[in-house]
Amino acid sequence: AQSVSQHNHHVILSEAASLELGCNYSYGGTVNLFWYVQYPGQHLQLLLKYFSGDPLVKGIKGFEAEFIKSKFSFNLRKPSVQWSDTAEYFCAVGGYNKLIFGAGTRLAVHP
Amino acid sequence: GAGVSQSPSNKVTEKGKDVELRCDPISGHTALYWYRQSLGQGLEFLIYFQGNSAPDKSGLPSDRFSAERTGGSVSTLTIQRTQQEDSAVYLCASSLDPSRNSPLHFGNGTRLTVT
Hints:
The complex is a heterodimer. Chain A has no helices and 12 strands. In chain A, strand 8 (64-68) and strand 9 form a beta hairpin. By secondary structure, chain A is mainly β. Chain A has strands at residues 3-5, 10-14, 19-21, 24-26, 33-38, 45-50, 56-58, 64-68, 73-78, 87-95, 98-101, 105-110. In chain A, strands 2, 5, 6, 10, 11 and 12 form a 6-stranded mixed β-sheet that branches. A 4-stranded antiparallel β-sheet of chain A has the order 3-9-8-7, with no helix packed on it. In chain A, strands 1-4 form a two-stranded antiparallel sheet. By secondary structure, chain B is mainly beta. Chain B contains no helices and 10 strands. In chain B, the strands form 2 sheets. In chain B, strands 2, 4, 5, 8, 9 and 10 form a 6-stranded mixed β-sheet that branches. Chain B has a 4-stranded antiparallel β-sheet with strand order 1-3-7-6, with no helix packed on it. The model of chain B has no long low-confidence stretch (mean pLDDT 92). Classes of the chains: A mainly beta, B mainly beta. At the A-B interface, strand 6 and strand 11 of A face strand 4, strand 5, strand 8 and strand 9 of B.
């Protein structure tokens, strides 16, 4: 079955701390991987994506993610978080006609 | 330009009533998706429209749910005989060219509450 698992439902960090959000997937076929972010009161928006090539992808606002095929993982990282990174983060996998989303991780960054 | 627009933003309805949720995609986007986000859960795929092709309805949870897309633009999601478990945020997204893996652009959603 196709699925996405996000290990952390809630994460609380202080500003300048490093961030890593876990994402594991189960999917048959060509893997396209995404991270979406939803800031408070805003709509979901794309943070970064991986289709092929360099498994380390960089997105907006200093975020990056690494695709590790052997571990079926696509973890999101940021070396130093800011208060403005407070949001909900969703990992997704799939083809162009259907994305399978994880349950999301709520990140709260305290000043 | 304008993003994906959904209406209403909030809808409270009584159990057993029918509801219609509307989505205006970004102009020129050929693909349109409906997702449902329940409390504490991820986004659940409902239906996908692409151009004039038959929609992918594989995610619709029951025959009480239906959707149409008129003229390749505006879409309406209809839920008949609503149940309390239908309470969720219904999200619409559009994409310019899915065959080129264009990203999904989401609307702000319609929060449906069934009492």
